[in-house]
Amino acid sequence: MKYMAPATLKEAEKLKDSLKKSRYLAGGTTLNWRSAPEGSPVIDLKNLPIHGIKKKGSAIEIGALTVLSDLKSSPLIPAGLKEAVGMFDALNIRNMATVGGASAGAFFISNILPVLIAYKASAAYYFNSRKNTMLLENWLKEKKGILCSILITHPKRRVYAAQDKVAAIDFPSVVTAAGFNLTSGRIKDAVLAVSGLSGKLQVLTDAAAYLNSVSAEELDFSRLNSIVQESISPSGNVKVSARVKRRFIEKQIREILDHIGRDSS
Question: Which residues of 33-48 are buried (b: 16+ CB within 10 A; e: fewer)?
Fold first, then answer.
């Protein structure tokens, strides 16, 4: 296996372009997973200047190589994201997994990706020898270039997440996050995102549209759950069936609405 550790973003990009089937290495949790391909060239990003957490105007910038445990301890990170990091039960995973790896959505489930989408976070990435920025939700569709940092441009958004597992020591089966602004009891700019339904993040636009159409007091669980259930197509596996995943997300929707109710009272 070829192993390289470039010193610059430009060098890393050139290596990726020149080496077929090469893989970027950050924390290594995905590459060390049992389904990771063997023998592919590895481009270690450890020497690149994409670490740390800092304020950038009113936004919070999180370097892609920042490990999840640093999010938990930083006073800059908003509460919703800290709570999502706390969903990782294994300390060794929090100390190893990076924000970039967790945000890129390469794993079949993510505790924090739905939360970042709910915050309407942006991705700063390096592509064709220059840095660019776009909404993380849009970047995930193409995953161009090297993910350099995550920008939380709206850290004051209200964001809540819920998860369910089949077993306490297992990965979560479904993770749901909702983000919104609350003005005079009205829900504005809502986002609802789910990980784990079919191995790919789903952003539920119809459900968000319903949230945006009502006040917090007018929210109806049955109506919202019906919209969500019509929007999703979960796939089962040996651990949890599609039917159980539907029940998990139903429970999580209720938990999130309880949070909204407490916030608006």
Answer: eeeeeeeebbbbbeeb
In order of 35, 40, 64, 95, 197, the CA distances from 172 in angstroms are 18, 29, 23, 18, 11
pLDDT value of position 33? 55
Domain ranges of the chain: 47-152, 158-264
CA–chain centroid gap for 255, Å, is: 19
Give the pLDDT confidence score for residue 120 in this predicted structure. 97
Query: Do the bridges between strand 53-56 and strand 59-63 make them parallel or antiparallel, or are there none, so unpaired?
Result: antiparallel
Q: Which CATH architecture has domain 158-264?
A: 2-Layer Sandwich (3.30)
Give the neighbor-by-neighbor strand order of the sheet with 23-25: 3-4, 42-44, 23-25
pTM above 0.90, yes or no: yes
User: Mean pLDDT per segment of 10 residues, for the chain of length 265 residues?
Assistant: 91 93 80 59 93 94 94 93 81 82 78 95 96 96 94 95 82 92 91 89 96 93 97 89 95 93 76
Token pair recorded at residue 129: 């020898």
Residue 216 sits at φ, ψ, to 5 deg, of -60, -35
pLDDT for 94 equals 80
Q: What is the CATH number of domain 47-152?
A: 3.30.465.10
> Whole-angstrom Cα distance, residue 23 to residue 41?
6
Asked if 194 and 201 touch (Cβ cutoff 8 Å), the reply is yes
